[in-house]
Specification:
CATH superfamily of the largest domain: Response regulator
Number of helices: 15
Distance between the termini: 43 Å
Structural class: alpha/beta
Shape: globular
CATH class of the largest domain: Alpha Beta
Order of helices and strands: HEHEHHEHHEHEHEHEHEHEHEHEHH
CATH architecture of the largest domain: 3-Layer(aba) Sandwich
Length: 330
C-alpha cells in the first residue's frame, strides 16, 4: 500500500474519530448518586422513572445510581437525613414532591442541586420565588416543565382549527403572569385573545361564561384553581353545551371531553431528565436552565370533534406539521 493511500486512510480515520467525539456526549467523570422523590404508586411517576432509567441505560458509560424516596415519607415527616446525604443531585416528580422537598429543613438539601420534573411552570415559579427569601436556598435549582410552551400550543390551534380566530382563556391569580406571553403567541398566529381572571373557585363559571361570550375556542392552562378534579367536568360541560372546543394540556383532559391536546408523556419527560442529568454530571452538577419539554405528542377526541361538527387532521399528520412549525429545519 502506498504512503499516499495510508495517509488518506489515516486522515479519514482521524476525521471519523473527531466526528464521533463531537457528536458523542461527554462521559461522566465517576459514579453518580441520584435521589428521586416521587409517588411510586402513581402510574405517571413510575413511568417517568422508568423512562429516565431506560434512557440512562443506553449509554455505555452509565454510572448513575438511582434511589427513590417515596413521597409518603415526606408527608409523615419520617424522611431521614441519610436518604439525601449521599445524593449528588435530587430529582422530584410532580408538584407535591417539589413543594414538600423545598420545605424540608435539611443541611443536605441546602447544598444539593434540585431538578423538578412534571411540574407546571407557574408552580415552579412559585417555588423559586419563595426560595429567594430563604436564608439557605438550594445551590442550584431547575425544572423540566409539565406544560408546553405557549407558542407551541397556539400553533396547534392554527393548524387544527384555521377557521377559528377568537381564543379565550380563563386565568387564575397564579397564572396571570402567563398573559403577556399568551398575547404575543396569539398575535403571531393571527388570533384575537380574550382573557378573564377568576379570583376564586366560586367565580369560575361566571368568568368562563364571560370568556365564552367573546371567543369560539378555549385554551386550558394548568392552573390548579381553574382546572382541577373538582372543576373540570363543569367546565367541559359548559363549553360543550355552547359548542365551543377546549384545547387541553393532557391526555386525561382529552379523555374527559376536551377536543385535543399537545402534551408530553412521562416517558418523554423522563428521557429529558436523563439528558439533563448527564449534562449536569459533566459540569460539576451545574443544572441546565429550566426548560419546556422537547418531545411531545398530540391526542384528538374525534367523538367530540364529530359532535361539534369539526373535521380534524390525522393525529400523526398534525404532529408532523406542528414539529415543522416548532423547528423549521426539520
Amino acid at each position: 500500500m502506498s504512503r499516499f493511500v495510508i495517509n488518506c486512510v489515516l486522515g479519514k480515520t482521524r476525521l471519523l474519530l473527531g466526528l464521533l467525539l463531537f457528536v458523542m456526549p461527554p462521559a461522566i467523570a465517576s459514579a453518580a448518586n441520584i435521589t428521586v422523590v416521587a409517588n411510586p404508586q402513581d402510574d405517571s411517576h413510575a413511568e417517568l422513572i422508568e423512562g429516565m432509567k431506560a434512557a440512562l441505560a443506553r449509554y455505555p458509560d452509565n454510572g448513575f445510581s438511582i434511589s427513590v424516596v417515596p413521597l409518603a415519607s415526606l408527608d409523615n415527616n419520617s424522611v431521614r437525613e441519610r436518604d439525601f446525604l449521599d445524593a449528588d443531585l435530587i430529582v422530584t416528580v410532580g408538584t407535591a414532591a417539589a413543594q414538600q422537598t423545598a420545605q424540608l429543613d435539611s443541611p443536605a438539601l441546602a447544598k444539593t442541586p434540585l431538578l423538578h420534573a412534571l411540574i407546571p411552570k407557574i408552580n415552579f415559579d412559585g417555588i423559586t420565588q419563595r426560595r429567594r427569601t430563604e436564608a439557605n436556598p438550594a445551590r442550584d435549582l431547575s425544572a423540566i416543565y409539565l406544560d408546553q410552551p405557549l407558542p407551541r400550543q397556539v400553533a396547534l390551534l392554527r393548524l387544527a382549527l384555521p377557521q377559528y380566530k377568537r381564543l379565550g382563556v380563563v386565568l387564575g391569580p397564579a397564572s396571570q403572569t402567563l398573559l403577556p406571553g399568551m398575547e404575543n403567541a396569539a398575535e403571531k398566529e393571527g388570533l384575537r385573545l380574550y382573557s378573564r381572571t377568576a379570583r376564586n373557585e366560586s367565580s369560575l363559571i361566571t368568568t368562563l361564561n364571560d370568556v365564552l361570550a367573546e371567543s369560539n375556542m378555549i385554551l386550558a392552562i394548568p392552573d390548579p384553581l381553574i382546572f382541577n378534579r373538582y372543576t373540570v367536568q363543569n367546565l367541559l360541560l359548559t363549553t360543550y353545551r355552547q359548542k365551543i372546543p377546549v384545547i387541553g394540556f393532557s391526555q386525561a383532559y382529552v379523555r374527559a371531553g376536551a377536543l385535543m391536546a399537545v402534551y408530553s408523556t412521562p416517558t418523554q419527560i423522563g428521557q429529558q431528565v436523563a439528558e439533563a442529568l448527564r449534562l449536569a454530571a459533566t459540569k460539576s452538577w451545574k443544572l441546565p436552565a429550566p426548560q419546556y419539554p422537547h418531545n411531545y405528542s398530540i391526542t384528538i377526541n374525534y367523538q367530540v370533534a364529530r359532535s361539534l361538527g369539526l373535521r380534524l387532521p390525522d393525529e400523526h399528520d398534525l404532529l408532523f406539521r406542528l414539529q415543522q412549525a416548532d423547528n423549521p429545519s426539520l
